[in-house]
Amino acid sequence: MADVPAIKSLRDERIPFGDEQICVRVYTPNGAAPFPGHFYIHGGAFWLLHPRHFDKVCQDVAARAQCVVVSVDYGLAPQTRWPTQVKQCYAALCWMTEHAADLGIDAARISIEGESAGGNLAATTTLMARDLDGPKIIFQVLVDPELDMALIFPSVQEFGHGWGTESTDLKEANKLYFRNIEDATTKYGSPLYAEDLSNLPPALIFTAECDPLRDAGEAYGRRLWDAGVEASVLRCVGHPHGAGKFSKLTTAAYQRTLKIAALLQAYGVEAFKPLE
């Protein structure tokens, strides 16, 4: 696979969140500002990993899509629990928009992306931005998203053992994330349970064929489409959950990275269609 292209800079910023601060990582491409802005939320079952573990992903997107990527370091469970992570992500998105000029960002061209647990937070943050009349997001990318925290879909059982992501681990992670498991079926806990999905930005949703979370991600795409939102769902055949991390090893995973960068560059110009 090709090497990750170079960017102009990578720096950390501390931003206010109530009486505390949270950190964001800012990846700036080479070239002349203003650039589109891309808000990135990492995965890790809500209790694992750090933005630095996704440096190559964010650097690749920043360079190839010619956009400033802002990656948020939200608090991890169980020290930080729902809905604090959602509020942190939304606060970081607002900060990114308010400081767009300083960051070299065109505030009229802001997209959002999240993978796995980050896909949940990205979809939720997008809902919150709509509900609160907040920053206008013009495109959303959800990669292997965890959109049904109640874990009721058939793929949870079909691929919940022996494919790298165990259904028992997903359930344990949910217990760390939620204080009350009933919150798993609220719209800011599981976006799939939102009654109204209208007036949201166009969505590109990647699912993996052998992923416990597959069915919920695809159901969300259908619901967006039914609500009048342009939504494209692309199932990666033969992939387990999180296969995109292996873009250095497999051509298929690398092509997914390139497609995300290309679509961000076009911001949804490509024709959207529902999963057949």
The neighbouring-strand order within the major sheet is 1-2-4-3-5-6-7-8
Beta-strand portion reads 15-25%
Give the N-terminus to C-terminus distance in angstroms: 31 Å
| Share of helical residues | 25-40%
Q: Topology, pairings included?
A:
Elements: E1 9-17, E2 20-28, E3 35-41, H1 55-65, E4 68-73, H2 84-98, H3 100-103, E5 105-115, H4 117-131, E6 139-143, H5 154-158, H6 167-177, E7 203-210, H7 214-226, E8 231-240, H8 251-266
Parallel strand pairs: 3-4, 3-5, 5-6, 6-7, 7-8
Antiparallel strand pairs: 1-2, 2-4
Helix pairs in contact: 1-8, 2-4
Descriptive account of the structure:
By secondary structure, this protein is α/β, with parallel strands linked by helices. 33% of the residues lie in helices and 24% in strands. It has eight helices and eight strands, in the order E-E-E-H-E-H-H-E-H-E-H-H-E-H-E-H. The chain has helices spanning 55-65, 84-98, 100-103, 117-131, 154-158, 167-177, 214-226, 251-266; strands at 9-17, 20-28, 35-41, 68-73, 105-115, 139-143, 203-210, 231-240. It has an eight-stranded mixed beta sheet with strand order 1-2-4-3-5-6-7-8, sandwiched between helices. Helix 1 (55-65) links the parallel strand 3 (35-41) and strand 4. The longest helix has 16 residues, at 251-266. It is globular. Residues 268-276 have low confidence and may be disordered.
